[in-house]
Amino acid sequence: MKYLSLLLLIFTYFTVKGQEGSFTINAEITGFPDDTKFHLSSLGKTNDSYIGTMKDGKLTIKGEVLEPSSYRLQAENGPYVSLWIEKGTWKVKGDSSSFDKLIVENSEINKLNREISDQLSPLWDKHSMLYEKIEAEGDKEKKKILINKLSQFGDSIDRVRVINIFSLEPSYPLMQEVYFLRNTLSKDSLKLAYDRFPETIQNGSMGNFIKDFLKTTLLKTGDIAPNIEGKTVDGKLVKLSDLRGKMVLLDFWAAWCGPCRLSNKQLITLYNEYKDKGFEIYSFSIDTNFNAWTKASQEDQITWTNVSDQQGMYSPEAIKYRIQAIPRAYLLDKDGKILEIFRGYSEDNHELIENHLKGL
């Protein structure tokens, strides 16, 4: 049995290792002037970023990948498109007027991704139009009706995506769909979806994420908050459990999250009023960029416990709380029991927190 386990471990290592390597993108894109800069940025676990410059309608970008991964290619101050990059040399063709339709020649992974996006794009366009109607609607009752329609339409999109997960050919882009719907699928359905994929994909970053996610449970009020840890901007390791004995607001946020930043600013008054009475905030940033995190922390005047592991949504600490959207916050009592769970931002959240703090 030990021998078999060792063989499986060796097989997994070389299977994943075999996907590492260098890539070269040779693009011919019409409609952009010479010297236009293009940024290729990872949308996955890594924080890789590359820059190329257009010359005579041609662009070359080179880099390294650990596995087939989703990237965003964006013209400076211009349009962008999502592409899947894997090791090898790839020819990309297109025009500035239809930049989101760039073609990666002879790329099976991008062909599969295009099939998914072409099916979902019209649905997301309708979803966006409905959202814009909600934003423009001034009548509260009409807005409620539109919000309900938006929710129902969102559910219908999810149903299409779930059908895809269980019917389309397993691929990295399809595993990304599983990743996106991890909180929508039941645990049994998520396990069935995960089991459809070959080991090469299961052992990739998203596959490993789902594997770890399946070990978690959905938290509810009354549960003891799982212990997590992270380092402050100064490099000091702080565990959530270090704050036992205090009422704690565990807050997941990021520099790029507008509602999170607004919440940070409004927490200052609350923190200053109750910090000497047994209240502490434990902010866990899911930023992957250290400089962006520290800059936002300074701008928001965060003086409470503020940590990160810079692994983004792939953070094993964030996985424990099934974080998929932020802001997300948990109010904990002195023993670490969850008193309240806050999904999204609302001024009412702070009022509810203060109602608990008045008893300190």
UniProtKB/TrEMBL annotation:
Q: What biological-process GO terms show up in the record?
A: cytochrome complex assembly
* A molecular function (GO) term: antioxidant activity
Its annotated compartments are: Cell envelope
Q: Which residues form the Thioredoxin domain?
A: 219-360
Q: Which domain of life is it from?
A: Bacteria
One of its Pfam families is DUF4369
Q: Does the keyword Transmembrane apply?
A: no
Keyword annotations for this protein?
Cytochrome c-type biogenesis, Disulfide bond, Redox-active center
Q: Which PROSITE patterns match?
A: THIOREDOXIN_1 (PS00194), THIOREDOXIN_2 (PS51352)
Gene3D superfamilies to which the protein is assigned, alphabetical: Glutaredoxin
GO terms under cellular component: cell envelope
What protein does this entry describe?
Thioredoxin domain-containing protein
Gene source species: Sphingobacterium cellulitidis
